[in-house]
Amino acid sequence: MSKTSPLMREGALSRLGSLRRHPAVAFARASLVVLIALNAAVSVWLIAEFEGQYTEGPPSPARFYALAGVDGEYTMIDVSIENSTRLLVYQLIRDDVGPEDDVGGGAGGGDDGSSDAPTSSEQDSVNRLDRARTWIQVTVGLLILLEVLVTFVGISGWFRAAGFLAVLVAFLVVLPLAFIGDNPNFADPGSTPNSAPEEAGQAEDDDQGAFVHEETDFGIGLRYGGFEVSMMYAGYDLGLVEEDNRSSVRETPPEPGTKDAASYVKFDSTLSLRFGPSVVLILALPVFWLLAPSGRKRDATLDESE
Asked: Which of 46, 142, 148, 261 sits CB 3.0–4.6 Å from 70 for a disulfide?
């Protein structure tokens, strides 16, 4: 009995291997792969969420929330602000303070040199997501074609693996970078997601000159179907400090409990990027290829040798 058990085990494994490479199983696998790829191509690709709140200072507790969704045709963005009255009052009572060494000279020629730049940068930003969509559609179509060729023609499975990697790069790398490049102000509470990049850059320069003794914190972590970035920014807003005291506040932080200490502002925020469920399901395709490998070419070789 013990002598025949290895033979029985080998026979069972052989029958199981033949079943995994059966044409009907290969056809079912190819159909499932095509359906998953097509479903991913027409579903939501990327979901971006931004949530930020002023936790200290005059604008507290103003809260920002932005939600964006990207699919094969559209980019939908929704922005909401809670406790906006505190934020509006904060913007009204503070003074505009530029960098300490800011001098008005040299501004005359800046308009002429930058007049043509917004047009080209705006055109590039608009086309980033369009190019990413085209790249995704091409790679998904190529993956479907390679799956059909591997199943019914018998080409090497390495071509299909290369197509699968191209799809992953398109979804996981190209698409998020294109979204951030097309919406550079999505996670900027000081401007709307559709604000011009040059306007946002000018506002950032003003903020850098207005805030002193800045504190920043940054962290990144994984979440289901994507990742999340947590950010913290704090500092003393010179726009809330009397003009006579600004030089002293620039040098040393004000003592707690003083009037100038009330200029301390802190903002906590989180930005999460997660992929649609259909995109996450694409990661299961290699499992199907392992469970039901394509053995058309190998079986033909074995038949010829016999």
From this structure: 46
- What pLDDT was estimated at residue 96? 79
Residue 207 banded pLDDT, cuts 50, 70, 90 = low
Within a domain: 4: no
- Cβ–Cβ < 8 Å for 286, 29: no
| Tokens found for residue 106 | 């040299």
Residue 27 zone, left/alpha/beta (φ > 0; ψ -120 to 50; rest): alpha
Mean pLDDT score, 203-220: 75
Question: What pLDDT was estimated at residue 244?
Answer: 87
Whether the pLDDT of residue 261 is over 60: the answer is: yes
From residue 223, give the alpha-carbon distance in Å to each of 164, 171, 177: 23, 17, 18
> How many residues are present in the chain?
306
Residue 81 lies inside a defined structural domain of this protein: yes
In a domain, 68, yes or no: yes
| Number of domains observed in the structure of the chain | 1
CA angle 88, 92, 98 (to 5 degrees): 120
Residue 2 lies in a domain: no
Phi and psi (nearest 5°) for 140?
-65, -45
pLDDT at residue 282 is higher than 80: yes
Q: Quote the domain boundaries for residue 237.
A: 9-102+111-305
pLDDT the model gives residue 188: 66
Per-residue burial over 20-54, b = 16 or more CB atoms within 10 Å of its CB, e = otherwise: bbeeebbeebbeebbebbeebbeebbbbbbbebbb
Find the distance separating the first CA and the last CA of the chain, reported in whole Å: 30
The rounded distance, in Å, linking the Cα atoms of 79 and 66 is 4
What one-character DSSP code corresponds to residue 306? -
